[in-house]
Amino acid sequence: MRTFRRKSTRPATPSAPSRSLAFGPTRGTRRAVAVVLAGLLTGGALTACGGGDDKGGGAGGGGPVELTVDIFGEFGYDELYKQFEASHPNVKIKQRKVSTLDDYKPRLQQWIATNSGAGDVVALEEGILPLYMQQPGKFVNLYDHGGRELQNSYLPWKWQMGVTPDGKQLVGLGTDIGPLAMCYRKDLFEKAGLPSKRDEVGKLWPTWDAFLDTGLKFRDKVPDTKWLDGPAALLRTTVLQNAGSGPGYSYFDKSNALVFETNPAVKSAFDTVLKFEQNKLTSGMQIFTPPWQTALKRDTFATLPCPSWMLGGIKEFAGDSGKGKWDVAPIPGGAGYWGGSWLAVPKQSKHPKEAAELAKFLTNPQGQVAAFKSKNTFPSSPQAQQDAAVSGSTDPYFGDAPTGKIFSQMAAQVKPVHLGPKNEDVRQVVENVLIAVGQGKVKPEEAWAKAVEEVKKTAR
Amino acid sequence: MTIDLRPARSGNPPAADVPPPRGGWRSRLARLDLRASPYLFVSPFFLVFLAFGVFPLGFTLWVSLHEWGLASGTRKWVGLDNFSYLLGDADFWHATVNTIGIFVLSTVPQLLLALALAAALDRKMRASTFFRIGMVAPMVTSTAAVAIVFTQLFDRDYGLTNWLIGLVGADPIDWQASRGWSWVAVATMVNWRWTGYNALIFLAAMQAIPRDLYEAAAIDGASRLRQFWQITVPMLRPTILFAVIVSTIGGLQLFTEPALFGVGSANRMDGGSLHQFQTITMYMFDNAFGEDRYGYAATVSWALFVMIIAFSLLNFLFVRRTGGAR
Predict the structure, then answer these.
(1) B60:A44 CB<8 A
(2) What are the C-alpha distances in Å from A371 to residues A82, B3, B48?
(3) Do A321 and A443 belong to one domain?
(4) pTM for the complete prediction?
(5) CATH classification of the domain holding A165
(6) Counting one residue from A and one from B, how many pairs have CB atoms under 8 Å apart?
(7) Which residue in A308, B120, B177, B199 is deepest, having the highest Cβ count within 10 Å?
């Protein structure tokens, strides 16, 4: 029945089956050509990537203006946007947020390179800023928009890093700095029989070695929870501490030459982190990635190096379940900071005047105080740091920890660290080697050599 | 009897082929029409191809001859330096091995499974349309959604797969850390998504096979299995060739699945701490937009292009040879 129907719908072409079986040489070559063509069509075409989205809004004047702000992680600007919109009725602000810095970097790079797609205000992290200092022409000179008047409301070194080496252009206005502390899980400390009050906890670990010993004790009592989140945060913390208290630079010296192998500040930080990996004290995660976000909601790790902005991340991802469990203690190993950003206005912005206005508004002392209140991004402006709302602040989420006092004391001691244009690439590969040690894929005794090899390739 | 639709140029010469004695602009126009219009009709494809195929290829080649940085603004002519570095670049070859490994793990089982599924669906069964549509359901889900769900299934600490493995009593697998297991995980995503598509293509081709061939074979006493290998597979050879070549091109350009699988890396283009599952396209992307080596990334993409052509030709010859040796 079925066979019959099929036969009847098929036109009588006796040659059809034999034709599809025939595979003469001419057909073959033609097919080969077709294969090559198909390859050509779909083959690697790098330039096809990209494409930004269209930003709405009228052109300048008093018409409606839509400003896009590109940030990563947590900046705490939502309230400030509303205030700015209230005082500038023609402006609408849209924020685009990427959770990890390393995911943010390539996007920004495409936008800046193709002169399209970037927001009107973009955040430049301390590791990214040196890269773009090489072509300041891609950004609006904020001196032309009254940036100079803000100079006295910043820490001098924070201000200086936002200015081109020749001193002629102001590329970025400083937002926050990240003075260091150590966050820890009170409930897990109690479970391990460790003291859990923040003053006593701080006394447990004056140095990183003491911190390691405490971790080993913790591991024996609570084997299902790791001591730290991962080697990446620890490496950044220790490298910046050592560099700040030592030569003032880390992977690259002040002339941007690679000194990874020879800088003792780097080697000692690497060895410190390696000890934690050898003892399997970390869960091998990287901050703000999805597994890390999930881990914050569970009992995956007990401590986390905490620059001030990290508190915002914990609140965001641990949510209500983490409330009252986390607390803040001093960091082992002395003074240091990690992170902090600048706001810049790309030249491609259609509304540079309004964008510069917004950047100034977000980074002025009052703006920095508001951002601190929202997401604990610690101000880079001395006036904002002295504001009672910052210096006297306590955080109910972290058991009423005196965060203002802890971070202000640390901020007063930090020294700036010079970062080279390829700092982020080098940092990433070193972190990867240390993670691989924790995964058992690289032997601890070979880790340093492996790191040196990878760093040389990356920084070539 | 077939009807020849081509304009009759030879044979019975029309007036256009005979030069008219005088005036003749109309006939010249008609001749131009005859000669030029076929090219005009096919030109849209070639114009688009020129703009989106040839130009990017040429431009990419141009970029690959430079030290070119998007963020730093560097632009320096270096000739073939990038290409000579590429030949000795262990990271590039590592990514190549990853790509080919994942490609083999995904394409071979996928096509075999698709063939079996198509053969099963080619029989008379209830609700055949339902099953056939069900086959392509994975196609309409977005790659990103597939990758995110599968990455959660393959999570080290809280994944379903490790939970199941735990039930059997085996140790959990750190999917992102082991090179082989990460390939398996990524290949699983690809297989899940594309098996149905290939099955549908095979099915369509199977239904075009004349049924009398099977009837004749059945009368001769050939079993179902024998019919499958002796009739179905040989008749499907051009279709299998198509599927293999499309899979090759897709497989060598694999990007989204492994990139999203690297969920724990702050930089997703790393493809694991030791680049366990970094494919060539990820390596290219990381060079272009991560490490600010746009020129070298262009070199990598050219190498990938050459590789795709070589692989497609190789597969083509291989499939034809195995078919011919039957």
Answers:
(1) yes
(2) 13, 78, 50
(3) yes
(4) 0.81
(5) 3.40.190.10
(6) 184
(7) A308
